[in-house]
Amino acid sequence: MKKLTYIFILGFLILSVQYSWANTITVCGSCETKSIKAAIAIAEEGDTILVKPGVYKESGIKVDKGLTIIGEGLPTIDGQDKGEIVTIGADNVTLDGFKIINVGSSYTTDYASVRVVTSKNFVIQNLVLEKLFFGIYVQRSQHGKILNNKVTGEAVSEFNSGNAIHLWHSKNIEITGNDVRHVRDGIYLEFSDFIIIRSNISKYNVRYGLHFMFSNDDLYEYNTFEGNGAGVAVMFSKRIDMHHNQFRKNWGTASYGLLLKEISDAKITNNVFFENTVGITSEVCNRIEYKNNDFISNGWAMNMKGGSYATKVINNNFIHNSFDISYLGRMNDNKFDGNYWSTYTGYDLDKNGIGDVPYRPVKLFSYIVNKAPESIILLRSLFIDIIDFSEKVSPVFTPDDLIDENPKIKRIEHDRN
Amino acid sequence: MLKILKYSFYDLMRSRWSYVYFLFYLLLGVVLLFLNNDLSKAVITLMNVIIILVPLIGTIFGIMYHYDSREFTELLLAQPIKRSSIFLGQYFGVATSLSMSLIIGLGLPFVFYGLFNSNAIWDFSLLLITGAFLTFIFTALAFMIGLLNENKIKGFGYAILLWLFMAVIYDGIFLMSILYFSDYPLDNFSLIAILTNPIDLSRVLILLKLDISALLGYTGAVFQRFFGTNFGLILSFKMLVLWVLIPTVLIWRISKKKDF
């Protein structure tokens, strides 16, 4: 009892200390403090800075104390192309509700609208970033949250544009509900582990919607990637969990829904790949599990480039793709089982929902197209159907052990929530 | 010419084969739409029908009609009518009635299915238009073969061979040459090869709607321009028109010179 009282008193003391010390500083055109910089200069650890609506022409704002900076009615911070606008260099900083424009681009420095340097417990939310080079650049930071920001760039080519949300050497960061468009990479992760990326929308980006490099143990779910150079690129990473995402309309000569390169132990489940030139392309990927995905109306549903071991493709729907699987190299212990293939022509005499004839997803024509890409123009020609059929009867060119032994007769209904 | 066209047309409209043809398409349309609730699959099947069956039927029907109406043609030739108008009239009569069977036969089920309320209407009209074009092209080619060959068996043989060549063998040769010359840039070659075969041309036209995501996967500026813009669509249509015009002109010229 005595102990409890002590704790209570201590807690009360801490609370009262906070209350007595935490001030709110208001910034507006006619206030005492007219600029955010000035407000930060007079603020102390734990204070709140409230910014009223208006345009603040400032750049190089350095937040070096644990402050809560809140914009009321979306005030604009105009960097006037002078370089970095907000730099967060302290723990426990919250930045909420600003429109930040005109960063200015450079070919030597990665200017960012908001940069977070070696900080913990930061929250960056409800920002609108326009006319940017890099959007939110997080380096060597941990336990932060990036929520509900809207980043719209004007990127045209890869070499003179930046990424909307860029993480470098960071850990345990949550990226949720952001909308990133027209930049180079929507979200970029390098050497960043334990990141959660949820419910973001990434559209029309020049390069990738989401890009992993050397990042492990990350999760992304319920995101939408549409019309990007490639939807998501996962490279040199381990244990990435990808589920319930939508990859749509990534069209072009080098466009993929999902690009996997040298990754291992990933789980790809319950995603939808719709109308991409290539749904998934993978190269040297080991122990990947593809489960419960829908591949609908893609040029190629999956393009597996070999060097892959112990891949499992189970319970997916392959519907109206021009090619279901294109496969180079040997089978290497990869398993296809229990998928639904819309081009399957077998029968089911015992009515158990599983076709009695095994299905071979690799057609001879996809092999030919790999050899001579121009022949794509013969797609769906009668001659091609005939040679595909003869190849199906007696496989010569296509890997004869690439078989789905238990193809489903009906489309599998997947849980999409 | 219009009178003969009208006569041929009504003659065919009354004939059993037109009805069979019409009913076949009607049935096909109904089965595809109402017994199979997957519209994309239906469109793919329809495409196969249109690029394979329509030319075949056009060819056979054209050559059959030409040989069947030979006596009537001779009777007409004795009259003071221009030769070109006799043959062209017959040709247009056959081709129009065939296209009508196709368009109405396939169109009716789709209209009842609710085509006008869906956005598939353009894709579907494209299918029908290419079908009509193919009918005109292959009927004209069949008439030409008929005019050049007095011998029925020979004529039939050539006509079937022509269809087989265009539908299957041509693609085989095309593929072989692509594989054989794969070290060379083949963009232009393949596009020209496609344009010189009406069946391939129609197939590509439909592919532009159906498999555009796969077609765009190929890296090559020429293909990109062809598939990525309306350029491909317009050029293909122009070529189809040309494919109708050339055999028609040839019928006209052959019929002028031919000795009966």
From TrEMBL, chain A:
SMART domains: CASH, PbH1. Residues 43-190, 197-357 form the Carbohydrate-binding/sugar hydrolysis domain. The keyword Repeat applies. Residues 1-22 form the signal peptide. Keywords: Repeat, Signal, Ubl conjugation pathway. InterPro entries: Carb-bd_sugar_hydrolysis-dom, NosD_copper_fam, NosD_dom, Para_beta_helix_rpt-2, PbH1, Pectin_lyas_fold, Pectin_lyase_fold/virulence, SCF-Subunits/Alg-Epimerases. It comes from the Bacteria. Pathway: Protein modification; protein ubiquitination. PANTHER family: F-BOX ONLY PROTEIN (PTHR22990), F-BOX ONLY PROTEIN 10 (PTHR22990:SF15). This is Nitrous oxidase accessory protein. It comes from Aequorivita viscosa. The lineage of its organism: Bacteria, Pseudomonadati, Bacteroidota, Flavobacteriia, Flavobacteriales.
Automatic annotation (TrEMBL), chain B:
This is Cu-processing system permease protein. The lineage of its organism: Bacteria, Pseudomonadati, Bacteroidota, Flavobacteriia, Flavobacteriales. It comes from the Bacteria. Keywords: Membrane, Transmembrane, Transmembrane helix. The keyword Transmembrane helix applies. The chain crosses the membrane at residues 20-36, 42-65, 86-112, 124-148, 160-181, 201-223, 235-254. It comes from Aequorivita viscosa.
